[in-house]
Amino acid sequence: MRRKFITNLALLVFLNLLIKPFWIFGIDRTVQNVVGAEEYGLYFSLFNFSLLLNILLDLGITNYNNRNIAQNNQLLSKSLSSIVALKFLLAVIYFVVTLIIALVIGYESRQIHLLIFLIINQFISGFILYFRSNLSGLQFFKTDSILSVLDRSIMILICSILLWSGITKVPFKIEWFVYAQSAAYLIALIISIFVVYSKAEFLKLNFDFTYFIAILKKSYPFAILTLLMALYFRIDSVMLERMLPDGKEQAGIYAQAYRILDAAAMFAFLFAGLLLPMFSRMLKNKESIDQLTFFSMILLIVPVLGITSASFFYRSEIMDLLYHQHVESSSLIFGVLILSYIGIATTYIFGTLLTANGSLKQLNLMAGFGVLLNVILNFILIPKYAAFGAAIASLVTQSITAIIQVVLSVRIFKFKFNIPRMVQTILFMIVLFTLSILSLNLNINWGLKFLGIIALSVLLAFVFGLIKLKFLYQIIRYGDE
């Protein structure tokens, strides 16, 4: 299982590093620089608002389905027709409820117009994720990896034409950005349908309400978890836009800093996508998950600490390189936000393990606490510190919820503390951060120092024995024998 994990992870990381960084820093960043912080802040807050209620589109079905298909491959054809029909009904509910809440909190006509397209985008994206969950559940990780970058690849093509070809005679509008996403998602969905159709018998939509109720009874704990985690991950920008007189601009400044964290979190998210079906199958077969958990944690946390350290110490240079406005304020916010990357990465390992185990009650209590903590902190900090206050709220929330998930995992799975390994990890962190500080005094290009810190994190992992070349070689050559 370790060999399958590392080979498929390598493909997934390669494809995503090939496509998504260019999307985030080439397209998304350029759009913000072109339209300005206020216009992009309008889009960013609406996008996150559409994500808050996104759970109504899914009600935990995708995560439940991934885990269920991984454990019971033979159920794919039976569940596919009924779940697709159910998701169409949920889409209607999501559309109506989201628009009603948007009208109640006072969104204006232009905001409603953009929100409608963002709702449609969420609907299509949710279907793509559902179809991909079937493929990963069946262990078709290579096919899933290709589909994971398909929508972004199409978006890059469309937006590149709009931004740089000179085909339009008027300045780029934020509306075009949303429309381009709609077109790309639709094309990716059509391709995903054909791929999944080739793997299963999918003849017609089956509106079986008895089956719907049975599925929802099993998936609603996943739905609650997804909703709660979306709230404490995404509510910051919505609260900024609604609470402050210059809310759109503050949301735009926050978006500048958050964009890099979002890009970095993508790397950690890839681990979760591979680990959920693997953990699910191993737990069902009563196999030990100790080695896979530790192995995946080390593979993730080493580059995460390198990226976090490099980004924190060179935050001003990064913001100055990427943006034309609000560089000083966004670099301060980014310095706080990037520290939460460690908590986010930890969540993607241990939260995924707990999800695969079905420990939804404990996870929902944790996530409920996270929402309460995040909202209270935002209400206290945003009026006084604006976007910087939202960043502090995010750091505190992500750190505490990550610690809770680690403690839950240790208690449930009876992980044993390896004192030498803990000492190695602590020494690794101390040396990495010390050398990162010392790098500030080197009279060379900051970009080289940034990359050097990330490379140093990998080198130090070998020096302190966190990763062993012999162990990696054995996994790649001999698999799990």
| Shape label | globular
Number of helices: 20
Query: Ends: how far apart?
Result: 10 Å
Backbone CA Rg: 22 Å
Order of helices and strands: HHHHHHHHHHHHHHHHHHHH
Mean pLDDT figure = 82
Q: What's this model, at a glance?
A:
The chain is mainly α. 84% of the residues lie in helices and 0% in strands.
Notable characteristics:
single chain; about 475 residues; mainly alpha; about 85% helix
Can you lay out the helices and strands and say which pair or pack?
Elements: H1 2-35, H2 37-52, H3 55-58, H4 61-71, H5 76-104, H6 109-137, H7 141-148, H8 150-164, H9 174-197, H10 209-243, H11 247-284, H12 290-313, H13 315-322, H14 327-337, H15 341-357, H16 360-385, H17 387-413, H18 419-439, H19 446-463, H20 469-478
Task: Provide an overview of this structure.
It is a single chain. The protein is mostly helical and 481 residues long. It has one domain (2-416). It contains 20 helices and no strands. It has helices at residues 2-35, 37-52, 55-58, 61-71, 76-104, 109-137, 141-148, 150-164, 174-197, 209-243, 247-284, 290-313, 315-322, 327-337, 341-357, 360-385, 387-413, 419-439, 446-463, 469-478. Helix 12 (290-313) runs antiparallel to helix 15. The longest helix is centred in the middle third of the chain and has 38 residues, at 247-284. The chain is globular, with a radius of gyration of 22 Å.
